[in-house]
Amino acid sequence: MADHEDEGTMDLQSVSNQVEGEDQAPPAIVSEGGGDLPGKPRPKWLVPVVVAVVVVVVVVAGLVGWRVVESRRHDAAFESCSQAVKALKGKTGSDRLAQYREAAGIKTDQVKDAKTVVAMARSVKDAEGIKEQTIRCKASMSTGDLNATADQAGKIDGKYAAVARAAKAVIASRDAKALEDARTALDGKKEEASRLLADSDGKVADNATRDTLQQAIDQAGQVKGDKAKAYRDAANALQAAIDRVNASVQAKSQADQQAAAQAQAQAAQQQAQRQGTTQRRQASSNSGRRGSTKSRRPAYRPSGNRGGGGGGSAPAPAQDNWSEQAFEEWSKGNTTGGNGCNSAGVCVLG
Length: 350
Description:
The chain has 350 residues and is mainly alpha-helical. Among the domains are: 73-178, no CATH class; 200-276; 296-303 and 323-350, no CATH class. It contains eight helices and two strands. It has a two-stranded antiparallel sheet with strand order 1-2. Helix 4 (115-126) packs antiparallel against helix 5. Residues 1-37, 261-342 are annotated as: Disordered.
């Protein structure tokens, strides 16, 4: 038994020694024939090829990286350009341009602050006029062109931003003056309406027009707010009511004038009738007197000269030619010489 144990111990030690020997020395390469393999030199073309391959890989990798970077730069430039153009379009759309043109047409006498008109004119000049912009960004453009277009759009956008501010200020100044003028005009129109309402009492053809005027005055007194249109509408309503009252006053005045003219005409007609009656009466009286005078004319009775002392007398006129004046003259001229008239009015030649 002891022998077997010793043999086993020796075997373990020998195996252990063999293992330790393997770690210390590499195994030898043995050819199939039992001899060592001879060493082979490396090919000369191998190193250049490897270097070339490495260079190609580096170049390709660099190109790919550059393309990626350049693509990102181009995309960023395109996005920046698009944003700049979009902002510019927001300030130069058709509605905004119409607003700018409206503001540019406002005069100094239309605004409360004339400086706003000057600032508007200056901003329009800096923007080189109010016009639609045609700047565009295209994906086919280079990165440099995109950046340049973005810069151009940004500069124009800044100029139109100044135009927008100036337009807002001048329009606000115009609206402020319009509101002030509308309020002043309404106050004046209310005073005019109140005076007319008092003065027209009893002088209108239709008193309903005065009632309408009073309603318009009451409504005008209730107008409030900062909208000039409300004040202008109230003033227009007052003016319409004023015009109706004035028309009613004029209608009554014309009617009164016509009535007065008719009364005057009637009075004149009555006066003419009275004068005509008086004239007819006078004519009738004169006609009676003339008839009485004729009846008292002397009959023409010629007679011869009876001689005697008297001298001759003037012959009497023919009977058909007697007139009051002729008779009177003849009577006066024949008071002597035997000629005379009796109490009956008969005159004879002596």
